[in-house]
Design brief:
There is one protein chain. The chain has 97 residues and is mainly alpha-helical. The radius of gyration is 41 Å and the shape is rod-shaped. It has one helix spanning 2-96. It has one domain. The termini are far apart. Residues 6-96 form a coiled coil. InterPro entries: LRRFIP1/2 (IPR019139). Keywords: Coiled coil, Wnt signaling pathway.
Length: 97
């Protein structure tokens, strides 16, 4: 009976050691995954920050371009009015002659 218990305990010990080895391997694999995911997350955050900076830069450039367009449209409008006045003055001078 004692020998049966000893062999049973030896079997349980062997099984526990196998389980321990399996769990340690799983821990190593999971730690590797955690490291990879952490690196991926850090890289994603870095890329996100770069994209945000690029977006801000492009928005500034867009605002500048829109301001220039507005300024040029105002200048064009002003010049068109001056041209119309010059044409009117020329027509007036021609009709006086």
């Amino acid at each position: 009976d004692a020998n049966r218990q000893i062999s049973e305990y030896k079997f349980k010990l062997s099984k526990a050691e196998q389980d321990k080895t399996t769990l340690e391997q799983n821990i190593g694999r999971l730690e590797g995954q955690v490291a990879r995911y952490k690196n991926a997350a850090e890289n994603a955050e870095k890329i996100e920050d770069e994209l945000k900076a690029e977006k801000r830069k492009l928005q500034r450039e867009l605002r500048t371009a829109l301001d220039k367009i507005e300024e040029m449209e105002m200048t064009n409008s002003h010049l068109m009015k001056r041209l119309e006045k010059m044409k009117a003055n020329r027509n007036a001078l021609l009709s006086q002659q």
